[in-house]
């Protein structure tokens, strides 16, 4: 049986600090939520592809997060790890309505 995806309300955008990750749990998944300096909100799987580092604790630079354990640079847009390292994380679709953040899970 295939699980259907649906929008899940997470929190208020105004309550999410810029440039600092926030871990949220939705449907048994750990998701790293980020409010970027350009105003966009991004959500990715909260697990580095190298030894499962908690990405919500990483340093944000532009549209990238650096794994706090191994310093891998991961795109918050595509989920791809910057070369020469390899790997990717799941990226979740985000929608903001009237300051409410919704994630498609």
From TrEMBL:
Asked if Iron-sulfur is a keyword of the record, the answer is: yes
Q: What would you give as a GO molecular function for this chain, any one?
A: metal ion binding
Return the InterPro entries for the record: Rieske-like_NirD, Rieske_2Fe-2S, Rieske_2Fe-2S_sf
Q: Where is the Rieske domain?
A: 8-103
Tell me the GO BP annotations in alphabetical order: nitrate assimilation
Q: What SUPFAM superfamilies has UniProt attached to this entry?
A: ISP domain
Keyword tags: 2Fe-2S, Iron, Iron-sulfur, Metal-binding, Nitrate assimilation, Oxidoreductase
Q: Which domain of life is it from?
A: Bacteria
Q: Which residues cross the membrane?
A: none
According to UniProt, the name of this protein is Nitrite reductase small subunit NirD
Organism, per UniProt? Niallia taxi
């Amino acid at each position: 049986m295939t699980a259907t995806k649906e929008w899940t309300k997470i929190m208020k955008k105004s309550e999410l600090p810029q440039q600092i990750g926030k871990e949220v749990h939705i449907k048994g998944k750990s998701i790293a939520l980020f409010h970027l300096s350009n105003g966009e909100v991004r959500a990715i799987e909260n697990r580095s592809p190298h030894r499962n580092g908690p990405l919500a604790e990483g340093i944000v630079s532009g549209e990238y997060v650096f794994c706090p354990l191994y310093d891998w640079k991961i795109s918050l847009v595509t989920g791809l790890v910057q070369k020469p390292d390899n790997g990717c994380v799941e990226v979740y679709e985000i929608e903001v309505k009237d300051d409410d953040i919704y994630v498609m899970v």
